[in-house]
Design goal:
The complex is a heterodimer of chains A (130) and B (121). Chain A has 130 residues and is α/β, with parallel strands linked by helices. Chain A is 36% helix and 20% strand. Chain B has a single domain, classed as DsrEFH-like (Hypothetical Protein Ychn, Chain: A, 3-Layer(aba) Sandwich). The model of chain B has no long low-confidence stretch (mean pLDDT 94).
Chain lengths: 130, 121
């Protein structure tokens, strides 16, 4: 089955973002396909390359990076939300004259059309957080 | 893009209490702009988004009521409301920002079952 995930809460608030990453990992292990993970609103902070987590806590950004690196899962941050939360890729950092990109290279920044496409393409759309 | 699927956005947040309120409207407009089928259901605190005569100017944020009023321009004409929640929050639906259809809990269940995707915001 083809799944897409929508993540709307920050990984530092509650467990929904972490649950989404765990869901994706388990779905892939069961032979399903994750078409795309779309991060909206506070969910976009999952892409932060600047967040630092205590050593005795699981790093939620790393969980997403592993899904991308090991399984090619597409991780897309909503551009309108990402800008507000300071989640900039190199293009946006240059456009808005910020010192550096702030997101992990595992993530891309794009528009809501990517969520619309994910709805149209996937058998199931799972929302996490909110 | 693949075959059209029926998307129902279930809106649960008050208009100025969470940025997800505006996010839900943005997703609805984007879905319609890409010529996909989308319908909205306001429930819980989300019914407050339908309050008539919203004025957000001094809050420094966009007026959700005005954005909802633009839904028909995007051919989003299926907008539903949880009638019990609207009653509980005393929202005057006759003067709401956008024309809505009142649903009972039973009707809401049927509406959700009839859609391919539910998106809760």
């Amino acid at each position: 089955m083809i799944y897409s995930l929508l993540v709307v809460s920050s990984p530092v608030s509650g467990l929904s973002s972490r649950s989404a990453a765990e869901f994706a990992r388990c779905a892939i292990a069961r032979g399903h396909r994750i078409h795309r993970v779309f991060f909206l609103d506070a969910g976009t902070t999952a892409g932060s390359n600047f967040s630092v987590f205590p050593q005795d806590e699981a790093d939620p950004v790393r969980a997403w990076e592993q899904l991308h690196d090991q399984h090619g899962v597409e991780l897309v941050l909503c551009v309108a939300s990402a800008l507000k939360y300071g989640m900039l890729d190199q293009t946006e950092a240059a456009r808005y004259e910020r010192a550096a990109a702030s997101i992990s290279p595992a993530f891309t920044v794009s528009g809501l059309g990517q969520l619309v496409d994910a709805c149209a393409t996937s058998d199931r759309l799972m929302t996490f957080g909110g | 893009m693949a075959e059209k699927k029926r998307l129902l956005i279930v809106i649960r947040h008050s208009p100025y209490g969470s940025s997800l309120a505006k996010a839900a409207v943005d997703v609805a407009l984007a879905t319609a702009a890409f010529d996909q089928r989308v319908e909205l259901l306001f429930t819980g605190e989300g019914v407050l988004q339908l309050m008539p005569d919203q004025d957000s100017q001094r809050l420094g944020v966009k007026n959700i009521g005005r954005q909802l009023a633009s839904l028909p321009l995007y051919d989003i004409d299926r907008v539903y409301v949880d009638a019990e929640a609207a009653e509980r929050y005393r929202v005057n639906l006759d003067a709401a920002a956008v024309a809505v259809e009142r649903l009972s809990p039973h009707d809401m269940h049927r509406l959700m079952v009839a859609h391919d995707h539910l998106l809760g915001l």
